[in-house]
């Protein structure tokens, strides 16, 4: 089995290289199994746009006999605001969906959803057993989370409050040259730090220093992206419009205290 990590964007060149790689595999007798992706590419630095850019990649996957596995651990459960699932922003239907942490709001639980024909290829030929599968306590927690998301309209809340938060965070670009980009969807935002906005040279050191400053202001976050220079801002869905000034203010103060 071969696993290939690839950075896909909406660019035609990326898809062409992806297709070429699959053709090379096929020529060497290597069967393509599938494509696994987090639909907001959170660990790659939060790459939400343009909407729909995953669609062509999934078409290539299916054309080559593979399946598309949507990793919804981070973008799922209404966080992006535009759709309940992150992949919903791309107008695609996965063959398999994996999810976890958010569905239990702290209670250990995970889940897998799949098209019947895909699951049958596994379950009809391989015996499967899971000691903790269907744990009633975990299932009760997951049902309670779904109930709250639905009854309190948290997906729409994420869309509205997230858009306002994004707009306020972008004002920091006017004050600090080191803020290279601010991008996101709903309450899932990437705050990119660079040494120079024109060259977009990643500034990992600043990102790590800023994380420590934010901690002093009682804000906890982490870095993402291949260069570790993107702050992943993913507040709880309970984050309110009144919390925006506090978060943006913490970032403002942190950058100022670091002499930026």
Automatic annotation (TrEMBL):
Gene Ontology molecular functions: 2,2-dialkylglycine decarboxylase (pyruvate) activity; pyridoxal phosphate binding; transaminase activity
Family assignment from sequence similarity: Belongs to the class-III pyridoxal-phosphate-dependent aminotransferase family.
Origin: domain of life: Bacteria
Annotated organism of origin: Enterobacter agglomerans
Enzyme Commission no: 4.1.1.64
Pfam families to which the protein is assigned, alphabetical: Aminotran_3
Essential cofactor(s): pyridoxal 5'-phosphate
Keyword list, A-Z: Lyase, Pyridoxal phosphate
SUPFAM superfamilies linked to this entry: PLP-dependent transferases
Protein name: 2,2-dialkylglycine decarboxylase
InterPro entries: Aminotrans_3, Aminotrans_3_PPA_site, PyrdxlP-dep_Trfase, PyrdxlP-dep_Trfase_major, PyrdxlP-dep_Trfase_small
